[in-house]
């Protein structure tokens, strides 16, 4: 391997919204994927339609990674603000390709070792092609030289990126690319160029968590979706609206979150598998119906793509601060399940599972994502579409009903799940209600009936724990230190654990996928360690508190939290753990 | 015969207008030979929101104000069901009024019977949006005017629990409207609360059945608006079939487009594997 060969490359392209940062990232993505790299992509945008500072980030690595790295190796900056914003994150030996159309780069905040290549992309684009727009292709030309990419290979990737554009637009972008490349080759010494590694290219998908949720829902037989646009959940609505006609499904935009969840509930009552998706503020509005679905025993999947709260908070930033609301929110006692996927594959698998589970348990199942899991994309092996199976509700059809002398919608059963005849079935007439009721569905406040019914509903969960998904665990099984985190923490914990292991600190890890109820696997993991650091994005340590309340030993639990809207980097997390361990030794000494 | 639940006796006070609505609904079902399993009665919260317990159809008790979105979901999922949403004026004109507006606009094949008594009976007599009381500074909300003002509205009628023959006919017309795939059928029923807001005497003699007016054209939205407003200015109410127009409901458009009812679809993953493989190919890098 050559000294300057790259096995892990973190790139940021930043400028004003509309500068074309995403185009540069797309072309680079194509390039790296062809070289066999794994990819992880994220965006940093303001919550507005156009303009505002926007950054697209991408990590290409030979090892599969589930987060951005600690530092930026390569920055394409369309303005000074981009550099100022990224300055503290630049790697020591990094390169900045700077659009100097508006003047030279002020590099006060940069380490001396950071190399800056100044090219007036914007000015060149206007001079040669009469449009500022082409500066993104121009910058890709510069980039391709610095990464020692063969001209034909680079053009090929650029053309792939622009495959849907008209020919003349592609030709103009190619001229811009050539101009940038020419300029860079005169300006940038050949011997200082970086070299991309080349690995065996495997079949992989680049997909974000929201799309993966939508695919899983549809594949698991989901045919009704109603939602209301909200960042960062909107992609689920959009995916389903785009593809619903292929499956004769309905995906509708409601007049608000209350309408969305109640429409989904209505469809669900007829036996059609139904979902809604939202983020924290919308999930707060949906509480009443979630409780109602729990009481009335209606299967419903509710996706909560968490963002930084409270209230409207920071719509485009990730957080895990709705755990309390998802687990404990809404009035009354009722059974519910909360599942938390950590990356796109999990999103797919748990979406399938949630859609099935809601049917099996006839209760609300909540899928807990966070903005990073929802909207960041990563490469994964293709889903095993053929392996998906449907699990059905205890449903009764007309001929089964004819064999029965009587039908009671809320029949008390050993496992709490009542046989279900959907509306329209002769002989299955019933009353479905959120009120307490007897087995026939008739309103009742009789104390004995009340106890029986509350217990029956709870029993659905307690007697079906085997249906709940186990988590992902890895690391040194004999280690005494554990790391535990859900959702977006998965990729960061993975990498931190590997680094700490390489430095001689053995660690084992668990990413629970069922967060409510707290299952034995989670508590067993905690109690197999001397101490467990619970890594989460919220101020109050909601996950740690949940585990303590479920019986985790207090002496065991350490809490590492962040709530600034930015994910942990693996390096941050390693430092936090080392510090916590050092503090501990200090205390015992 | 499988034995199912026995419909309860209503919880309403003797003389409550809602008895008339229940009776007219049952009569309409009988007249149209709708069997109990073919209809779903969804009800809101309040006195009116218990009507589903007193018929023998599939019944559902919605959250306060949410009966229309739930009914929309049911109808889209199973268009064969006669979907009847019922509720009071608090449910439909106060907490759920946003959904009423969007139901006019969306036009699902749902019959919505709103029992208007100008009060919150179940919570013992608070003012509703239609309360007509000199002690309230706010103007009365008129659901007929509201419906007429929304271009997508396709069936607007008003009946009275004191006029059972007319009410039954209007319910039949409303069900026929939804059956024909024309969309949302809104029927407000003046249904007095004898305990907290006995409007029988106040409303007597103030109702004008537009179906009996010479030259009244229920296909003419502007004309209907003029008549309704004119009567209101005279302190009278229009009843009867006030407005209807052709159109198509979303579930009808699905069926016309060759799409099966959602509840009949083959959802086995194997049934659409090639579609999924094609979609996923779009994510390959």
Brief summary:
The complex is a heterodimer of chains A (589) and B (285). Chain A has 19 helices and 23 strands. Chain A is an alpha/beta fold and 589 residues long.
Q: Can you walk me through this structure?
A:
The complex is a heterodimer of chains A (589) and B (285). Chain A folds into 3 domains: 5-196, Pyruvate-ferredoxin Oxidoreductase, domain 3; 206-387, Thiamin diphosphate (ThDP)-binding fold, Pyr/PP domains (Rossmann fold, 3-Layer(aba) Sandwich), CATH 3.40.50.970; 472-588, Rossmann fold. Chain A has 589 residues and is an alpha/beta fold. In chain A, strands 7-6-5-2-4-3-16-9 form an 8-stranded mixed β-sheet, sandwiched between helices. A 7-stranded mixed β-sheet of chain A has the order 11-10-12-13-15-14-21, with helices on both faces. Chain A contains 19 helices and 23 strands. Chain A is 38% helix and 20% strand. By secondary structure, chain B is of the alpha/beta class. In chain B, strand 5 and strand 6 (126-127) form a beta hairpin. The mean pLDDT of chain B is 96. In chain B, helix 3 (89-95) packs across helix 4 (97-106). Chain B has one domain (18-259): Rossmann fold, CATH 3.40.50.970. In chain B, the strands form 2 sheets. Chain B has an 8-stranded mixed β-sheet, sandwiched between helices. A two-stranded antiparallel ribbon of chain B has the order 5-6. The termini of chain B are far apart. Strand 17 (431-433) of chain A pairs parallel with strand 2 of chain B.
